[in-house]
Design goal:
- Helix 4 (142-158) packs across helix 6 (194-206).
- Helix 4 links the parallel strand 7 and strand 8.
- This protein has 10 helices and 10 strands.
- The protein has 315 residues and is of the alpha+beta class.
């Protein structure tokens, strides 16, 4: 009879060696780092010169998707404002890395892009276009007026089929007293006549310096008389604030995206939190059009097409 014991021992040793090997692409340690939260908070406070007036909250460590590193979220808040930062932490808790981890299999702006889907507000351009611009704007903001002119004068004239523009209201209420009321009125007009909304968009920015909280309604009603808008219905919509929920939803979306100023523009998810002049904007769009020929990981994705039921039988 053949003695199998030496062979089994060698096999057992080989299997044990395989079990002890953890390939980074296959497995990842699940041990949480020995994180001293108080020490990390003190270090970061010193790094950014944050005083006691800033509240700092450090979350628990969780898997990061990268072998040997865990992820920790830090939230800093003061005066009703807050910001979140992501850190990677070594397993022994002695090294922290602040930065963005990119997965080249995804669009680099994937996180924001995932929030900018199924938009239903005012839009211009071609459904399904490879480049989508989402503008967070405030009708009382002078820089927003300049951005609006840049877009309206150039965007569709240069890219009649390659882009789509969405407008999201983001009135800065603490400093602009009539901006939200104007956004509500604009949405009322959009409900009646989407094409008329864009005439309103151009008009209210042009009238910005003449408008005050006390004369906004009268001026909007005057605009309506010459714009194929049913005045009685518009007045009721404005007075009852029927569209305030839509404006609030747009503002909530902006806050989810951590929009802090207007204008803020997203170009296929790329954030530009300032006024951007046409030459630079055109360069970004051109580069994005070229990139999407290969990547095909952004652009407009219309959620649906609504058609009235037909009385005729289907063929």
């Amino acid at each position: 009879m053949v003695n199998m014991l030496p062979w089994l021992r060698r096999l057992s040793s080989s299997l044990l060696a395989l079990l002890l090997v953890c390939l980074p692409a296959v497995c990842q340690t699940s041990a949480t780092p020995a994180l001293d939260k108080a020490a990390v908070e003190a270090y970061i406070r010193h790094l950014f010169a944050w005083g006691p007036d800033i509240k700092v909250e450090l979350g628990d460590a969780k898997p990061s998707g990268i072998s040997g590193l865990s992820e920790v979220t830090l939230r800093a808040s003061a005066g009703g404002q807050s910001v979140e930062q992501q850190y990677l932490v070594s397993q022994d808790g002695t090294r922290i890395i602040r930065g963005t981890v990119y997965d080249i299999r995804q669009n680099p702006f994937h996180e924001d892009l995932s929030k900018l889907t199924n938009l239903e507000g005012p839009s211009l351009g071609t459904p399904g276009a490879p480049v989508v611009l989402v503008l967070f704007t405030d009708f009382e903001c002078p820089y927003c007026r300049e951005q609006a002119v840049e877009l309206r004068d150039n965007l569709l004239a240069t890219y009649p089929k390659q882009v789509r523009l969405y407008v999201e209201d983001f009135p800065l209420e603490p400093i602009h007293p009539w901006a939200k009321a104007a956004a509500i009125a604009g949405r009322c007009i959009y409900r009646q006549n989407p094409d008329a909304y864009w005439r309103f968009f151009d008009w209210i920015f042009a009238q910005q310096e003449q408008i005050q909280p006390g004369n906004l309604r009268a001026k909007v009603m005057g605009f309506a008389q010459n714009s194929q808008i049913e005045a009685l219905g518009l007045g009721r919509c404005i007075d009852s604030k029927d569209t305030e929920g839509e404006v609030n939803d747009a503002m909530a979306l902006g806050k989810t995206l951590q929009v802090e100023a207007t204008p803020t523009l997203f170009i296929n998810g790329r954030r530009i939190a300032s006024l951007v002049r046409w030459p630079r904007l055109k360069n970004i769009i051109d580069n994005e059009l070229e990139y999407q020929k290969m990547a095909k990981n952004a652009g407009d994705q219309p959620c649906c097409v609504v058609s009235p039921p037909s009385p005729l039988p289907e063929k």
